[in-house]
Design brief:
The protein is of the alpha+beta class. About 50% of the residues lie in helices and about 20% in strands. The chain folds into four domains: about 140 residues, Histidine kinase-like ATPase, C-terminal domain (Heat Shock Protein 90); about 60 residues; about 70 residues; about 150 residues, 2-Layer Sandwich (Heat Shock Protein 90). The strands form three sheets. Strands 1, 2, 3, 4, 5 and 6 form a six-stranded antiparallel β-sheet that branches. Strand 12 and strand 13 form a beta hairpin. Helix 6 packs parallel to helix 9. The protein is rod-shaped. The two termini are about 90 Å apart. The protein binds adenosine-5'-diphosphate. Adenosine-5'-diphosphate binds next to helix 8 and helix 9.
Length: about 450
């Protein structure tokens, strides 16, 4: 705090005898009123002054009292009272007798001013009070000088009045508190009601969710039943279809047999057409039957120790017949060293044949390769080709039943091979995954446990 705007004190007084305490109290209130402190603050600083004056009269035999107006760093004005004791403070410190005194003012401290120790207190002047310019301060000083201090009795009367108004204020604050309490209780009731309502809504929602789950369970049971009956239907229909289709193929063969009556060229071509369509149909029926069997859990893998080398040899033999394009080489790599795992030889053969067959169907030049490798407790079979590859967004779809990539060269097929292969691999306790780069080729990887499913 700087000494501005007034270095000169507004008022100076001496505290020597008991009587002076009243005068200091009264004058302190007057000074506070003059500089613009509100009524309550006038009483507060006057009360603090009389308490401190009483303490100092007792401990130091009196003091010189002066009042000042200071400007704080934030530009606000403060009323300051300095009480310079007549003799040094005990231990150079000052503790008010009543602890409440420091709460009546903004600051209460012991400060050294030009080598003299003073007890200093201050209270902020409200922002709406007129600015105490030098002229106004001079006026204040003159005004305070004019008014003579009243008697102790006068001050007592004033003090009584202040006490009454303080009591009044306490009462009105109590009333305000009661109103606030009532409002709080009201709010509490509101919160409670809201809480109850929310709890009810939550319970309602919960009931809805439970009902939904029940419905969901029911739907999935229905779906399971539907899927089972589909598999059953497929199995039955394909089974029933196989006999007549086989008969058509047989009859076609009989018709074109050299021992039968000769056919005209046209008839011969038509019978060939019937035979090849019937062969396609038989193929589809067989694949449907296989898939339906795998789906309905009617395929039980027969696990045994399988040596991969003869299995690979057989694959090489049977697939060579399908590798008709001279630009495509079929490479079946002989496993190096002992290659034995516990699995179902027939099912594994079917899966690998299916993948190799696909590779040969879709690859126009380059190679189709089968390779096996051992990794910890798994065997990995990679069927890779240098074919057209499969776009990332279709890599899951090709494992769906009947899905065939549109626009691919029509090379026949049913769209059932891959879903069937994946189902078999799952039955064997393994997995079938695909990695592919469009334009470069695809690799299907079958991973099987060494110890069987
Ligand atoms: P299918 O071969 O009888 O059509 P699949 O289920 O075996 O049925 O294959 C589904 C589709 O996935 C095929 O029609 C083909 O579009 C695609 N596909 C399968 N293997 C390959 C491959 N090696 N390279 C490119 N596309 C392939």
């Amino acid at each position: 705090m700087s000494g501005q705007p007034a270095a000169l004190p507004l008022l100076q007084m001496a505290l020597r005898v008991e009587q002076d305490i009243f005068v200091i109290r009264q004058r302190g209130r007057e000074v506070a009123a003059v500089v613009g402190l509100e009524h309550q603050d006038q009483v507060r600083i006057a009360t603090a002054l009389s308490e401190v004056a009483r303490d100092l009269l007792r401990t130091t035999g009196g003091a010189d009292v002066s009042f000042h107006v200071d400007t704080a760093a934030d530009g606000r004005f403060h009323l300051r009272a300095d009480l310079a004791p007549m003799s040094p403070l005990p231990d150079g410190r000052y503790e008010p007798q009543s602890g409440a005194v420091s709460r009546l003012v903004d600051t209460l401290s012991v400060s050294a001013v030009e080598g003299v120790t003073v007890v200093r207190m201050s209270r902020r002047v409200p922002a709406n009070a007129p600015t105490p310019t030098l002229e106004r301060l001079a006026e204040f000083r003159a005004e305070l000088g004019r008014t003579a201090p009243a008697s102790a009795l006068d001050e007592l009367t004033v003090q009584n009045g202040q006490l009454i108004s303080a009591l009044d204020e306490v009462r009105s604050q109590r009333d305000e508190l009661a109103v606030l309490n009532e409002e709080l209780a009201e709010t509490n009731r509101g919160v409670l009601a809201l809480y109850n309502q929310l709890t009810e809504e939550l319970e309602e929602t919960n009931r809805g969710v439970v009902a939904l789950y029940a419905e969901l369970d029911e739907k999935s049971a229905q779906l399971r039943a539907a899927s089972e009956s589909k598999s059953r239907f497929l199995a039955n229909v394909s089974h029933e279809l196989r006999a007549p289709v086989t008969a058509i193929i047989g009859l076609g063969r009989l018709l074109t047999d050299s021992a039968s009556d000769p056919l005209t060229d046209e008839q011969g071509r038509q019978v060939d057409l019937i035979r090849s369509s019937a062969a396609d149909l038989l193929n589809l029926v067989n694949e449907l039957l296989d898939l339906a069997k795998a789906e309905s859990g009617r395929i039980e893998p027969e696990l045994a120790e399988v040596d991969l080398r003869p299995v690979f040899g057989q694959l090489r033999g049977t697939l060579r017949a399908l590798a008709t394009r001279p630009e495509v080489e079929l490479v079946v790599e002989e496993p190096s060293g002992p290659a034995v795992l516990r699995t179902d030889e027939v099912l594994l053969g079917q899966v690998l044949r299916n993948l190799l067959h696909n590779g040969l169907k879709f690859t126009e030049r380059g190679e189709v390769r089968l390779r096996a490798s051992h990794h910890g407790d798994r065997w990995q079979f990679e069927v890779s080709d240098t074919g057209p590859g499969i776009a990332p967004e279709l890599r899951d779809r090709i494992f769906e039943e009947f899905y065939q990539i549109p626009g691919a060269t029509r090379v026949g097929g049913t769209g059932l091979g891959l879903p069937y292969a994946r189902r078999l691999v799952t039955l064997l306790g393994g997995s079938l995954e695909l990695t592919s780069t469009p334009g470069e080729g695809s690799t299907f990887t079958v991973s099987l446990p060494v110890g069987g499913a």
